[in-house]
Amino acid sequence: MTRKIRFYDTTLRDGEQTIGVNFDTEEKVAIAQALEDYGIDAIESGFPAASKKDFNAVVQISRAIKKATVVPLARMVRRDIDAAIESTEDAAHRAIHVFIATSPIHRDTKLHMSREEIIEKIKADITYVKQSVDEIIFSPEDATRTEPDFLVEAIQAAIDAGATTINIPDTVGYDTPDEFGAIFDNLRANIKNYDNYGWSTHTHNDLGMANANALAGIAHGATEIQGTINGMGERAGNVDIIEAAVALKVRHDKFQVETNINLKKSKQLAKFIEKLSHMRIAANKAITGSNAFAHESGIHQDGYLKNPATYEILSPDMVGATATLPLGKLSGSHAVAVKLSQLGYEVTKQDMAAIFPEFKKIAEQTSIVGDDQLETMMTTITEKQVVSH
Ligand code: KIV
Ligand code: ZN
């Protein structure tokens, strides 16, 4: 049976914590609208207690967004909570995301709070939020380095006080997928009425495992993935929502889940965020990088031209991208002939025997042979009467 998995985007909060990224209010509203259009179920709209400007941005997003749930973030501090509640009064659908760290290192060295004090704070602050807002997301920060028994205790306290979704942050990107999945198994075994609540993953990419961890969470009973577009976020960033959504689609055989994501808009959304964040997408980035559907070597190009599925596990069209066959020193004559015919040259196999060595000479001198270079090559060859047209 297929389950529905939700996507919760935090580009405007964790994403904006990326070094050098600073969106203005107009950009934030435009990003929120693009996220809604992409099919994101919940949008983390910011941290309204940070400044008047941040507060105002959350107000504007709350007014602009109609379908998705708008969710500001708050520490378990009354000033933060009040700002989060007030800034979302006009939202069509709203939730409040509250967090407090639960791991020993955060309790002892950052918060200077005992386990008992943390539990009391969770109970008091969630009860306080519940008086104004029904949907509450609770995050035990640094959950993956929290003692399993205390994690259960903290989460049960949050649920008993009124939390409706529990987010499990791998705050420092430390867990392996099997460890992260096991957290959900343990919660299912120990939290009363586990299936009555939303269970979210929030994975950071410090060891390059953010996507694997988010997917492991889904395989082990999570119902939602928190992430960002282009994997923006604190330090090495968060899981890239586009990568996770595409993985769930391409590996439907394994995960058996559906989402509301409009995959065809993936490339367009990634480019939009790239532009506003001034954070370049690496050429070799999965799905949205400029090389993600580019085949250069002769063996790959030949296979691809015979059947794209030889080297593509998804059609670029599925994510709004296009395949390219860049011509370089490893390209074969099949791809060169196809490119020449796209440029309007009718070349026979016999012609190619003369053209290909000329192509190789140019390719040895440059990284990618462009259309202009091919045109010049063909003019030179024709002039030399190596081939005639
Ligand atoms: O990484 C983290 O722990 C967070 C929380 C605020 C959810 O971003
Ligand atoms: Zn985070």
How is this structure best described in words?
By secondary structure, the protein is α/β, with parallel strands linked by helices. Helix content is 45%, strand content 12%. The protein is built from 15 helices and 10 strands. The chain has helices at 25-38, 52-64, 78-87, 104-111, 115-130, 148-161, 177-190, 210-219, 241-250, 252-255, 266-277, 298-306, 333-342, 349-365, 371-383; strands at 3-4, 6-9, 42-46, 69-75, 96-101, 136-141, 165-170, 198-203, 224-227, 257-258. The strands form 2 sheets. It has an 8-stranded parallel β-barrel with strand order 2-3-4-5-6-7-8-9, surrounded by 8 helices. It has a two-stranded parallel ribbon with strand order 1-10. The longest helix is centred in the C-terminal third of the chain and has 17 residues, at 349-365. The radius of gyration is 26 Å and the shape is elongated. The termini are far apart. The model has no long low-confidence stretch (mean pLDDT 96). It binds 3-methyl-2-oxobutanoic acid and zinc ion. 3-methyl-2-oxobutanoic acid is lined by residues 14, 99, 139, 141, 167, 169, 171, 202, 204. Residues 14, 169, 171, 202, 204, 234, 238 line the site of zinc ion.
